[in-house]
Design a protein that fits this description.
Layout: H1 2-23, H2 29-54, H3 57-60, H4 63-87, H5 92-103, H6 107-119, H7 125-132, H8 134-150, H9 159-168, H10 171-185, H11 191-216, H12 225-250, H13 254-264, H14 270-279, H15 283-307
Helix pairs in contact: 1-6, 1-11, 1-15, 2-10, 2-11, 4-5, 4-12, 4-13, 5-8, 5-12, 5-14, 6-11, 6-13, 7-13, 8-9, 12-13, 12-15, 14-15
């Protein structure tokens, strides 16, 4: 119970403040758009740039961490795809969008602050290693599957270009790529530049959490409840359970296991809705899954923190 009160509730109270402010009209939709633009395109890319630039790549990018997390993520995608198509009789395009909800966990806006509050800022190496390839892997899988579904198995020669453009026009990926460039080159950065980046980093997560609450006001859960609850089960139970089992089996260190499982146990991120809206399929399922699973994460994250050593 102490973890629930001291670690998880502060994160969700900030989200709740954002939700209440927009719902009551104290903070405008335009303000939320501006805040999310600032966090998604500037502050969080700075956070990821700074984290990757300063990581010890040899120790952080342990294959067992990545295998444990992404095996669970891909399993979530496969179960979402198969369930969407064969359990709920949705079109292949809808099924891909449902699968993407089971694939893309909210690794940054929820995973980082919960992990930091639970175990400290020094325990985030595994999280950043996962996040560094999260968007490329997930968008690569999702876009490829959707283009194949739309072309009914004949995606055509433009598929690779579509996947690359979708991934590398993403500012989060630009921040990650810049961080790798600095890290691998050993390029020293001016102190004033580092200080400026650190100022942006300190604003990133609180502003993003407040903005996330404001965004969730738009998503009203309506219809499709069986599919939505299925997605919640994939995100909050199946993904972290597979990651935990693989991590224990592969002999992950306690610190690495914590980072992988906490990241896996997060609700679908806003990117799940963005992906669905890109293609115009299963948008209501994606939006409602983000909203409901984010609320359920209060309990599920607390339970996983009790399980973890």
């Amino acid at each position: 119970m102490q973890a629930l009160v001291e670690v998880i509730l502060p994160v969700f109270l900030v989200i709740g403040f954002g939700y209440l402010a927009v719902w009551r009209g104290w903070f405008s939709d335009a303000g939320v758009e501006g805040l999310m633009t600032f966090t998604q395109k500037f502050a969080i890319p700075c956070l990821l740039f700074a984290a990757i630039a300063r990581l010890d790549l040899g120790q952080s990018f342990e294959w067992r961490v990545l295998l444990s997390f992404y095996a669970g993520a891909v399993a979530g995608f496969a179960l979402g795809l198969i369930g969407g198509r064969f359990l709920f009789a949705r079109s292949w395009e809808d099924a891909v969008a449902i699968g993407f909800c089971g694939l893309f966990s909210n690794s940054v806006l929820l995973g980082l602050p919960i992990m930091e509050r639970a175990y400290g800022a020094g325990a985030l190496s595994a999280n950043f290693a996962i996040i560094a390839i999260h968007s490329p892997v997930c968008y690569g899988i999702g876009i490829t599957a959707m283009e194949v579904a739309r072309a009914r198995g004949q995606a055509g020669s433009q598929l690779v270009g579509k996947v690359a453009r979708a991934m590398f026009s993403n500012t989060l990926i630009m921040g990650i790529a810049a961080g790798f460039a600095v890290n691998l080159s050993g390029l020293p950065l001016p102190g004033a530049f580092n200080d400026a980046v650190d100022l942006m980093v300190r604003a990133a997560l609180p502003a993003a959490l407040f903005g996330l609450g404001g965004v969730l006001v738009r998503y009203r859960p309506e219809g499709d409840m069986r599919v939505i609850l299925y997605v919640c089960a994939l995100s909050l139970v199946a993904h972290p359970l597979i990651t935990y089992g693989l991590g224990r089996g592969l002999g992950l260190s306690v610190e690495a296991l914590r980072g992988a499982v906490v990241t896996a146990a997060m609700a679908p991120g806003i990117n799940a809705y963005i992906f669905a809206s890109m293609y115009g399929h299963a948008m209501r399922v994606a939006a409602s899954s983000v909203l409901i699973a984010t609320g359920l994460t209060v309990i599920s994250a607390w339970l996983w923190l009790q399980v973890l050593p």
